[in-house]
């Protein structure tokens, strides 16, 4: 009998909670975000696909510890997306379905509506298929249309395993030293040069990912 997305998601969520209980986690870069959380200013978080495993747990942890808000996550319409949607819901996150390859325009419209309603969202700008750490245009359009700042963020762990996948998916090992790093919020105007903004956001996301890696390597 095949195992469905619901059972897989339940097992993955349990594994991540057990794994997280053994890790030491440090968080950096939240100082500029706390007043935005308090004011309920909608934010767009960006994280590379290879670093997403622990992020739903991180959001739940930050909601308890530092007043972060629950976020909505964009998940593709594929079978993998169904698993991802069920997985993040296990941590109390909301889901918007769609991707750049399937239902992209509709997904963008729904994300715009969510942000304009005052909610935070997470976008994985190189997902669901890559290329790895190359930013796709959707997040720039979302930021330009809503005026919500983009917050680059990254997770790192050591020791950890990098899977032989297109995104070099990062899986912390038990008792790992972990870091979550947030970059400065980046606001885009409605008339911003989207190509230039995309390159700047991609660089900011690469910079924050490198900063997270340095924190667990020091």
- Series of H and E elements: HEHEHEHEHEHEEH
Structural class: alpha/beta
Describe the global form. globular
Sheet with most strands: strand arrangement: 1-7-6-2-5-3-4
Quaternary status: single chain
Tell how many strands the DSSP assignment holds: 7
Low-pLDDT sequence parts: none
Count of domains: 1
Instruction: Give the termini separation.
Output: 46 Å
Strand content: 15-25%
Properties at a glance:
7 helices, globular, 41% helix, alpha/beta, 218 residues
Structure, explained:
There is one protein chain. The protein has helices at residues 5-20, 34-38, 55-65, 79-89, 104-116, 138-146, 194-217; strands spanning 24-28, 44-46, 71-75, 94-97, 120-123, 150-162, 170-182. 39% of the residues are buried. β6 and β7 form a beta hairpin. The protein has one domain. The longest helix is centred in the C-terminal third of the chain and has 24 residues, at 194-217. Strands 1-7-6-2-5-3-4 form a seven-stranded mixed sheet, sandwiched between helices. The protein is 41% helix and 22% strand. The chain is of the alpha/beta class and 218 residues long.
